[in-house]
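User: I'm curious whether this sequence folds into something compact or stays loose and floppy. Could you predict its structure so I can see for myself?
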Amino acid sequence: MGLENDKKPTIVLIACQFIYSTVTLVGRAALLQDMNSRVFVVYRQCIAFLLIAPLAYFQRRETKRCLEWKSFWLIFLLAFVGVTINQNIYFEGLYLASSSVASAIANLTPAITFVMAYIIGLEKIDLGSTKSLAKITGTIICIAGAIAMAFVKGPKLLNMEFMPRNSVLKQEGQETWLLGCLLLFGSACFWSFWLILQVPVSASYPDHLALTAWMCLFAAMQTGTLTLILEHDMNAWKLNSSLQIFSCFLGGIASAVTFFAQAWCISRRGPLFSAMFNPLGTVVVTVLACVFLHEELYIGSSVGALAVIIGLYIVLWGKAGDKMEDTSRMEKERHQTMPADNCRNNIDLEEPLLPENSDYSFGKSPA
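Assistant: Here's the prediction. I'll summarize afterward.
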């Protein structure tokens, strides 16, 4: 039973990556039809709220859980960081760069999360430990790989011959490419902060369905206000094609499902475990973008993406070692503090060695 529960977050997060990849591809295609990226985020969050609110309402009638002021402001901040800022700069960067680069730079999330956790004291580093050195080395490799994807192109690997000269997918210049990469990097930073912020929010308001509904509502209000301030042309709110309409509905469904799934998985396995599945999204997006959107694939981007994935799993290897050490230490302390006469009689074979949600903190963690 415990093994099955351990597999559930993994299966859910893999499904989330396929959802993210689909939204990235469809969203970029819609943006290239001159759909406003900020308007897209507003419509997406409104649809997500309309989908999740009825379910949250009927569940709330059963649980009778009230939203306290502390939880209110935490969820408001969560929506501001994870949606209002993150998604606006992400989709703008997606438009200026490409689907493959957007997905690849998102792979920096585990490394950025690791650095943030260390700065605020949630992650410990021992330079004399092989596991700690692996985490540091993997983080550096991740960052180097992302930089290579942004700045090093080299010869093309795919779509050298059949790219139309007037294709709307053709990059307008190095300046827009660089700006897009910088925006995507900023998005990865805010996403990492959003993952960390999920921990105190889930602890304050553990109803994940209602949490998702509140976050979608706050995000719709925030992004709507921001768009009204920045976009003075009301024609920007018009959806001019079936693809744009479809992308908004797909994005809304994706937000409702993935926000709930991420909150549920983080409450059980921690933020870093949730972030570790981003490389799967890179593979899916890169392959589908080359096949269906005819995006250009360069040697530099391929090598950089490979470096990001290798560095990421070096970090995860170090994190796995930390978890084993923590488990061993806690078991040793448990036996030392337990009276000798009770060691044999007080062991519950059905009780796990660690609590189910012990991966909340990075020091005992599992992206």
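Summary: The first helix runs from residue 2 to 31. The mean pLDDT is 75.
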